[in-house]
């Protein structure tokens, strides 16, 4: 893909998707751990992202429970990063002088991993194609130097380039359409996420994963502990999609997961300074 | 005078940040100039989402300062023949000057020789180069961020700082960012940096490079283009000043485009269509005779849209959004509101205050109570039904997607389902007024439901001990109370606030933690503050507002009638003498316990006469007040002045005999109580006192 080449040319190391269910590329270790310390970092990778609540049984032209992000992290953020980003769109063959490209205020926050940042959603002729964020905090830790995160919504970008108004009409590769590739998956997962997933077993799994994460933190196995937190987060999203989470329970569970993540971040930072 | 220009070039800032930044920049630079004795002929600010700009004409240097250095006494400085002595020569040398430049200076202690020195003012450029980095670093924004490895907090990353003084680069550095003599134009159409050497070159350069710098020019350009697009359609914009203001700052070169969407979507109500347009894509909806047309207007940051790519792109995205909205609309209508209401028990209103099912049940009680109180018997059935259903739309897909439509969507669904117009209208309007200036509910039932909802929330939150402070107001209680007051005043509703609060408290059962009296007292003060704010906004005199509010809010509307009456009587010749009299009464009885009154103990003619006048006046004034005729009641009470005067002239209140004394005080207490029902006159400031206060302060 030309995005990969472009960011490789910008000196980014090309990573592979992380092999766990995550809600966004931000949550993978290649972003989460690497933004915490003072060392510089440049990476780009595709990340399939699952959001059970966004499933629409394949009936909505824009929303799906799994989509793909292209995630770029550069730390410290270069002073001309906005221009570099704009050039990446030009590089995809978009003649920007004929379009309306806007950076609309949209600060980002992920309470589950104790992270927030300031930035924009990038909107091209009314279509949101990228989330552009300067991270300020992750795992409850104040960050410095500041990383910039650029997250392209690949399906959205592709819809723009192909001028399609339904995600399933996308021409994914040669003769395979997105419909061929993903429609059945969307239908079945929507059914599972919203109607079938067993609430009691999900709760049990969530409790087990939390316990395992706690145990691993105590043993300083921070990367495996963080994996368990990601599992917690996904299980929580499933429970939420099943409508099994009340408002108070939501606050509590998110708080519990965040507490684990914050402990991991603190230990990780302490280890970095010691080393 | 020399020309100054500063431009802080950033990545896209929110409109509110631009305005805050510009206001602070102007204020801080003016202060910097003032404190350095540099005069300014002009100073102006302009901005877009990508630049904060200040320019003006300032004096080229600080004003010079005259200084006098005193040397030895004249007698010691010159010999008899007038030649300078060693003392004078030494003094001159120590100040790097010649003896000839010394002058004789007359001081209170006698004649001395001395030196008049002019301290040359520093060049303004130097002063600014030192001061500006601190000014820029001290700007504060509603939310601040850091970037890269720059040790500075700002609204968004600073890309470049242009600073010219007298046509030349004014060099300074702030956290690694060096000032430059360059700027750049539109981010897509003219991103290359170009040099500028004056304000006019800068303004001209921006124009040539596709940036309209003055906000009012951008706004009027948007307005003109909108009109031009609408004229052939004979249509109007669905007004949205907030959106227009935001777009004015979001773009540097506005291009307005007209788009169209398929006619099928016109089946959706205007409210839904316009929100779908506004919230996702910041588009204006276009109406004709109050109805949505299949058109919309957008503002692009572009020179033109020759190939209609921007329009078509927006049409595609909008169509998907409208498809979503239609999906929500149709899905939602499949479940009747009464059936959907069962889900309300799963929606939390407030953690300690329970769910929306309970809230709806309370609203039914409170609205029913208000209907009884206000004699709205015919309204009761519909108002109670509206109360039962008004929160159900929280469970709809439409409100989940567009939270700003809450209430409205419920009303629209109720109308579609064929509920009486009174019911659907009340549901539709029950969140009104949203903001302080927003329209009030137009229907009676809507107004009562809005009152009930607000009072329920206020009583609940206060009842679990959450305090509203300057910075913390969860659930927006101030706005809620403000709305209650506006509805009451607008509709001239007369009911007892205390009893309404009691009703609302009892509707909570045993959930609330605070005792009833404490909640009511807190609410009285809270509503009082809101009324003070409203009356002040209406232009009433501060002391009259205080006098009126001090007589209580039971009912709220009476406080307004009292205030109006006070304001109208304040011109009457009886006003001031009466106020003085009232204050005298209050001063005498201040701090005393209540005494029992016994008319048989009156011994003197004047106190008997005062009592009989007072009894008559009281018996006439009370019914007038109950009827809201405060001006008449106050005029009536003014008649107490003559007998009171006679009383104070002839009678010694503090009589030797304790029983007589207490009886006289008791009469004054009774009078004071009646006065207080009209207004707390002791809070009115009259002319003589005002001057007194000014002198002493």
Topology summary:
The complex is a heterodimer of chains A (275) and B (697).
Chain A: H1 2-9, E1 13-14, H2 29-32, E2 41-50, E3 66-75, H3 81-91, E4 101-105, E5 108-110, E6 115-124, E7 127-138, E8 141-142, E9 148-153, H4 154-162, E10 171-173, E11 176-177, H5 178-196, H6 199-218, H7 222-241, H8 247-274
Helix pairs in contact in A: 6-7, 6-8, 7-8
Chain B: E1 2-10, H1 15-35, E2 40-48, E3 51-58, E4 65-73, H2 74-77, H3 86-94, E5 103-107, E6 110-119, H4 124-137, E7 158-165, E8 168-169, E9 173-174, E10 177-180, E11 182-184, E12 193-195, H5 199-208, H6 215-230, E13 236-237, H7 241-250, E14 254-260, H8 270-281, E15 284-288, E16 291-301, H9 309-333, H10 337-340, E17 348-350, E18 354-355, H11 356-373, H12 377-389, H13 397-401, H14 408-416, H15 421-429, H16 444-463, H17 477-491, H18 497-507, H19 516-538, H20 542-549, H21 556-569, H22 575-589, H23 605-626, H24 630-638, H25 641-650, H26 658-678, H27 687-696
The tally of domains of chain A stands at 2
Kindly report the name of the CATH homologous superfamily of the largest domain in chain A.
Bira Bifunctional Protein, Domain 2
Number of discrete domains of chain B: 5
Query: Strand-residue fraction of chain A?
Result: 15-25%
CATH fold naming of the largest domain in chain A? BirA Bifunctional Protein, domain 2
